[in-house]
Amino acid sequence: MKILAFAGSNSSKSINKDLVEYTTTFFKGDIIEILDLNDYEMPLFSSDRVARNGIHQLALEFAGKIDESDLLIISLAEHNGSYSVAFKNIFDWISRMPNRKAFGNKPMLLMAASPGGRGGATVLEMAKKTLPYFGGKVTETFSLPGFYENFDHVKGITNEDLKLELQNKTQVVKGKILQELLHPNLN
Ligand SMILES: Cc1cc2nc3c(=O)[nH]c(=O)nc-3n(C[C@H](O)[C@H](O)[C@H](O)COP(=O)(O)O)c2cc1C
Fold this sequence. Notes:
alpha/beta, Rossmann fold, two-stranded antiparallel ribbon, 7 helices, 21% strand
C-alpha cells in the first residue's frame, strides 16, 4: 500500500516529524512518502485569492499526493490548543477544491506529540472529532507526551508502554486497510 506521511508543523526541528518518521518504520514493505509542509508553503488562504487566481498550484499538488495514497500518517503540532498555521493553511486551501473532500476519504493514523504532559491531546481530540467531516477517516489515534523523555533519535520511543501502544495501533491500521483494499464494498 502507499502511505503518505507528514507532520502538521513547519519546524525544521519538528518532534512530530520525528514521530512520523519513526512510525513509518512499522510499515515495512509499503511505499512511503514523507512530505515536509515547508515545501507547500503558500500565501495565507483567502477567498479573495481563490476568486482572483483559483486554487494555488501547491494545494493542487498536495491534494494529488493525498489522492494517490491508501493511508495518511499525520502527527499534529499543537499550537495554542489548535492546529499550527502551517497545517491549517494547507487544510484551508485543499478544502476549497471543487468536488472533493480535503482529505480524500482516506484512512488516517492521526497522532500528536508534545514536550509537555498532555501529548497534544487538545488538537488531537479536535482533529479526531472534526476531520471526518472533511474526508479524513480516522482509523486510530496516538498521543506521545513528554517527547524529550520518551523519544530517542536512534531508538525511537523509549517508553515501552507507549511503544507497544503505537506498534499495536499500526497493526490495527494495517489490518483495516488491507481488508478495505481487498473488500472495498464491505464498509
Ligand atoms: C505558537 C506555539 C504555541 C504552542 N502551544 C502549545 C499548546 O497549546 N499546547 C502544547 O502542548 N504545546 C504547545 N506548544 C509547544 C509545542 O508543543 C512544541 O513547540 C512542539 O515542539 C511543536 O511540535 P513540532 O516540534 O512538531 O513543531 C506551542 C508552541 C508554539 C511555538
